[in-house]
Amino acid sequence: MAYLALFLLLFADAVWAQGPPRPGGELSPNESPMRGPDGKDRTQDLLKADLASNLKDLEAIKRLTDEITMELEKLDRHVLSVGALKKLDEIEKLTKRVRGRMKRF
Asked: Helix/strand/coil (H, E, C) string of 12-56?
């Protein structure tokens, strides 16, 4: 029971520490926008680069899933080859990478 109370206390503290979401993506007073050497805000450039990387990774995910689907359709058993398992691991890695980029800003 004491562990449950401690968990709830820590969970509530973590939730309250985040605070309410800021409207319009405003920066808090202690945050500064990402600036380049010339003083320009680089956030938009980084977002465009992330979009291009995400699209490239999503195309790779689509290609890998098509390959796995074709491989499964060829087989008449419920068995995955080692190659298919490696492709699934690659899909998982790419998915985590895309999710990380999307959560960054």
From this structure: HHHHHHHCCCCHHHCCCCCCCCCECCCCCECHHHHHHHHHHHHHH
pLDDT tens-digit series, residues 61-79: 999 999 999 988 888 777 7
Per the listing, tokens 């800021």 go with 22
Q: What CA–CA distances, in Å, run from 71 to 15, 65, 80, 87, 89?
A: 45, 10, 9, 11, 16
**Cα distance between the two ends of the chain:** 39
Structural domain tally of the chain? 1
Q: pLDDT by residue (tens digit) across 30-42? A: 555 677 777 778 8
Print the domain residue range for 95.
39-105
Report residue 42: phi and psi, to 5°.
Answer: -95, 0
Which tokens hold the place of 34? 């990402």
Question: Residue 20 falls within a domain, yes or no?
Answer: no
Q: Are 59 and 98 in contact (CB under 8 A)?
A: no
